Amino acid sequence: MQVRVGSVAGRVVVALALAAVLGGCAGAGDGDRKAGASASAAAGARGAKGTGGVPSGGTIGASGSDCKLPVRFDIAASWKAKGIDAEAELSKTSQGPDGDLGGALADSFLRQGPVTAACEIDAKPAGHIGFLRVWTGKGANADAGTVLRQFVAAEDNTSKATYRVVKTGGGLSGVEVEYLYTSKLLDETKKETALAVSTPDGPVVLHLGGMDTEEHEAMRPAYELAKRTLKSA
């Protein structure tokens, strides 16, 4: 089961709570167990106006910004960026009271295919329900199309994926996909979009979800702003 509306950190907390329940059912008998996941918080970026009528809230990606990444790009005004130290979170959960089970559940939320969660930009302060997430991987100049196909394949219940080669406003070549995701839990289907680029420091995937297709479309200008301004860090 995937919980796809809340933050990555929130999804890890849900996973760990589930691990505690399953551990109790297995006869651990240790009483209630608590586990948490944290991501380093940061203030929203500030900046000038974006292009195409989309206000920019500043640039992230460079050292010292809310998220240090192999790329830089503008985030929409009022959206809030937060870095994710996935390796630290995985280490904490695997060494916690639920051991391998907690680590495996956390891994399912922090990794998708060949990439690992590195940053999430929350749309809630701007009045939307959803996130623009950034995932990073290893392998200098890895093939962006291969990485993106593996990313989508690792997500359950996807269909109608349409891929195309794109070039960002910052001069990076990449591959973009639009596809449908169906939630078994909610029995609903919604649109999602992702973009993969290759860098000397490894592949980067930008992923735009949303509570539903209507929210996805409402947040799409923020994604387009990121794509227009995306460049190597």
Quick summary of this structure?
Helix 2 packs antiparallel against helix 3 (99-110).
Account of the 3D structure:
With 233 residues, the protein is of the alpha+beta class. The protein has helices at residues 8-25, 86-94, 99-110, 144-153, 213-229, and strands spanning 56-60, 71-76, 80-83, 111-112, 115-122, 131-137, 158-167, 173-183, 188-197, 204-208, 231-232. Strands 3, 4, 5, 6, 7, 8, 9 and 10 form an eight-stranded antiparallel sheet that branches. A three-stranded antiparallel sheet has the order 1-2-11. Strand 5 (115-122) and strand 6 (131-137) form a beta hairpin. Helix 1 packs antiparallel against helix 3 (99-110). It starts with 7 loop residues before the first helix and ends with a strand.
Q: Helices and strands, in N-to-C order?
A: HEEEHHEEEHEEEEHE
Helix share of residues?
25-40%
Strand share of the residues? 25-35%
Shape: globular
Q: Runs with pLDDT <50, length 5+?
A: 11-51
- Whole-angstrom Rg: 18 Å
Class based on secondary structure composition and strand pairing: alpha+beta
Number of helices: 5
Secondary structure blueprint with pairings:
Blueprint: H1 8-25, E1 56-60, E2 71-76, E3 80-83, H2 86-94, H3 99-110, E4 111-112, E5 115-122, E6 131-137, H4 144-153, E7 158-167, E8 173-183, E9 188-197, E10 204-208, H5 213-229, E11 231-232
Antiparallel strand pairs: 1-2, 2-11, 3-5, 4-5, 5-6, 6-10, 7-8, 8-9, 9-10
Helix pairs in contact: 1-3, 2-3
Which structural traits does this protein have?
11 strands; single chain; 3-stranded antiparallel sheet; alpha+beta; 8-stranded antiparallel sheet; 5 helices; 233 residues
